[in-house]
Amino acid sequence: MEISLVIPCYNEEKNIPILIKRYNKFLNNKKNEIILVDNGSTDNTANVFKKLKKYKNIRTTKVKKNIGFGYGLKKGLFKAKGKSILYSHADMEIDPTDVLYSIKILQNKSIIDNKKYFIKGNRINKRKNYWSWNDIFFSWSLTAISTILFRRFLFDIHGQPVLFPKKMLKEIQYFPNDFSIDLAFYVHAKKNNYQIIRFPLNFNKKRRYFGSGSSSTTYKKIKASSEQLYQCVKILLN
């Protein structure tokens, strides 16, 4: 396998068929694979997955109870067969075209030869993409706190997609169960002198066709931020 694209899905039954169509070109390369994780969904995701059996290079796995994005992602990552691993969300807020653009960056010979690459999206034009001031505040707060704690400049920590060599999975000691898994990968790449490439993309909060985000209210944002502060300390200690 060349590249494994891992996508955790939580109550995304209506988005999944659209997603597969958008990744058709990726799937046409039989050396690539998509791993879809039913991350404890309570909708009809399981039945949607059954309809995907006709695809030889789509694999699915199930998590019985939703514990968090990181937990579901981890289940998919360790099933990946590709030399490189790519991950992103299922909600369409990131255009699949941008996800696939990260692969074009990887095709640069100097990056491939390096063998220590970390390619990560950088979400721009936030207000134009319907981010609330609350969204921007919490994003920048995490950036500031993480930069201070880890003594390295870290920005747009939850920017996706993320693409890295499979061997990186064996190097990381701690995988958070929530969205802090983005931070764990980013910090590891910084600490271990990976070639980090950030590229701009639009994360449009109105592009999502169906469903709603897990941190859609101020209360949920505060709760998620508190958990991520705790995870920052855990990552720092591991």
Low-pLDDT runs of 5+ residues are none
Q: What shape does the CA trace take?
A: globular
Tell me about the largest β-sheet. Answer: 7 strands, mixed
Mean pLDDT: 92
Q: Would you count the extended β strands for me?
A: 7
Q: How much helix, percentage-wise, in residues?
A: 40-55%
Biggest sheet: strand arrangement: 3-2-1-4-6-5-7
Distance between the termini: 31 Å
Order of helices and strands: EHHEHEHEHHEHEHHEH
How large, in whole angstroms, is the Cα Rg? Answer: 17 Å
- Provide the structure class: alpha/beta
Tally the helices: what do you get? 10
Strand content: 15-25%
Polypeptide structure, described:
This protein has 238 residues and is of the alpha/beta class. It has helices at residues 15-22, 24-28, 45-50, 69-77, 96-106, 109-114, 133-150, 168-171, 181-191, 218-237; strands at 3-9, 33-39, 58-63, 84-87, 117-124, 162-165, 195-202. Helix 7 packs parallel to helix 10. The longest helix has 20 residues, at 218-237. The radius of gyration is 17 Å and the shape is globular. The two termini are 31 Å apart. The relative contact order is 0.17. The mean pLDDT is 92.
Q: Descriptors for this entry?
A:
alpha/beta, seven-stranded mixed β-sheet, 7 strands
What's the short version?
By secondary structure, the protein is α/β, with parallel strands linked by helices. The protein contains 10 helices and 7 strands.
